Model the fold of this input.
Amino acid sequence: MATTPESSTSLTPEAIQRLVDHHRQFLAFLQTRVESRAAAEDILQSAFVKGLQRGSELRDDEGAVAWFYRVLRNAVIDHYRHRASTERAKEAWGQEFVAQVTPELKDEICQCVSGLLETLKPEYRDALRIVDLDEGSLNDLAEQAGITSGNAAVRVHRAREALRKQVRVVCGSCAEHGCLDCHCKADGTNCEPGES
Done:
């Protein structure tokens, strides 16, 4: 008589009951090994499903609880492997995104903003060029301007506010509601959505 996959892989009702009785201990075991209770609960739920499917792995010389702790240890290892590979993939995607998108974004900056930079005080204009346009650090600005890093941060904040005010004055409602199709005149004197 051939065995069905279900009968060859399932646990006995007694073994299942022992596992259910140890639910809290299993959860506590996982919580000390993963980043959150939610992650521990997810791993435990998945491990229960795997345990039910792979019950034939239970050896006669070990109890169901000891066997299930082995399943849980493997599940924790799998969790961290998956998490590490996901993080590596996100990091690689992020680097690729920045490398491909940043030059395009710089080309698409509204021309009135570039023109309005010239209307700012020289120290504000320099701060925005160093930190925002050239992607320098506050330390770079501090070194070039001969000020402290704290003062550099304040200067950048004030420069951005000054530029924001200028954009509101020149661009009006376009600046308030997001300018998606701005065809500004080169001198920045008239900025209306869709105007060419």
Observations:
- The radius of gyration is 31 Å.
- Residues 132 and 156 are 9 Å apart (CA to CA).
